[in-house]
Design goal:
Distance between the termini: 12 Å
Largest sheet: none
Strand content: under 5%
Shape: globular
Helix content: 55-70%
Number of domains: 1
Number of helices: 5
Structural class: mainly alpha
Radius of gyration: 14 Å
Oligomer: single chain
Length: 107
């Protein structure tokens, strides 16, 4: 499987599984974010938190929104409603981490 940049490796494979969990129609600008979520899957696995997801998004968003974004602030400074938006991404990463741990998917 190749991503839109033509890459074909284990990061791309994990990112593809995460985006499939989300039913995410991945746009070119979102590829680095999907890769960051794949990294979270590898390094945090089932222990990934919504805070981790927000931090990954913030790193990506820094380049996407050079003029700033209202959610580019520490997780604990977000409203509970905005914090909750990260839960679906956390859940997708956890689901893929679980599939990896039982050998349902490679990488």
């Amino acid at each position: 499987m190749k991503d839109s940049a033509g890459a074909n490796n284990y990061i791309v494979e994990i990112a593809a599984h995460i985006t499939a969990q989300l039913r995410w129609d991945l746009k070119e600008k979102d590829v680095p974010l999907a890769r960051a979520y794949a990294l979270l899957c590898l390094v945090r696995g089932e222990a990934v938190t919504s805070r981790n997801v927000h931090d990954a998004w913030s790193a990506w968003a820094t380049g996407q929104y050079p003029g700033g974004h209202k959610s580019l602030k520490p997780f604990e400074d977000l409203t509970l409603e905005v914090q909750a938006l990260d839960n679906i991404y956390r859940d997708a990463i956890v689901a893929v981490a679980k599939m990896r741990s039982v050998g349902k998917i490679g990488a």
